[in-house]
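Supplementary Note 3. Input sequence used for the single-chain structure prediction.
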Amino acid sequence: MARISLSKISTRAPAKLGKEEVKKKTQKLLYRLEELQNLLYAEGKHALLVVLQGLDASGKDGAIKKVFDAVNPMGCRVVPFKRPTELEMRHDFLWRIHQQVPPKGMIHVFNRSHYEDVLVQRVHKWIDEKTVRQRFAHINHFEKLLVESGTVVLKFYLHVSKEEQLQRLQERMSDPTKMWKYNEGDIKERQYWNQYRAAYEDVFANCSEAAPWHIVPADQNWYKEYLIADAVVKALEKLNMKYPGMKTG
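The predicted structure, written as discrete structure tokens, is reproduced below.
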């Protein structure tokens, strides 16, 4: 796959787009998503895995709340991946991930994911380059298995600028409604900005063709939410799902 340079991709919406018009389109997409999720749940032949990755304060939590607030909670589950537990560390790195993939009829949203194991651990040099390459291969095989088993895998990288990230992190220190999100480590991680960007570009270059990445400009929440909702709706519509008939007997 051709290498992607994040520095050449804007973190903002095209100037010609109007915020209010895009928000109206997003609302229509969310109505459609609600319909499609009911259909996915009823038919029970497919599953949807949404992977959200991005640097700290790129807007993963907000995207989950805005885009998936419309769906029936019975058919959707959000799974956050934080530092592995002692038990998880005693298994292969995909062990904890595979347990959380969606069964047929369900949507699961990963807030961070298996990619943390080739990002954080690589940036901090907790693993060597040989292990990184091995993990790329394992991730690609894992995602190919999911896709071939009937799971649609949508991966989104929330592309935030360094300036916008800093502003959002500062809000966590001054806004009482956001202070609970504050983590001193987030500020420290900013010193690795360039290393994380390089690691993400390597992820994009080595990702599975079965589940390509969507790079989402994330400085403006309204545009980020629109792009994610649009991609999810289009992916579900491609499944050509139908409601099952009445069960008898």
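The mean pLDDT is 95. The CA atoms of residues 56 and 188 lie 11 Å apart.
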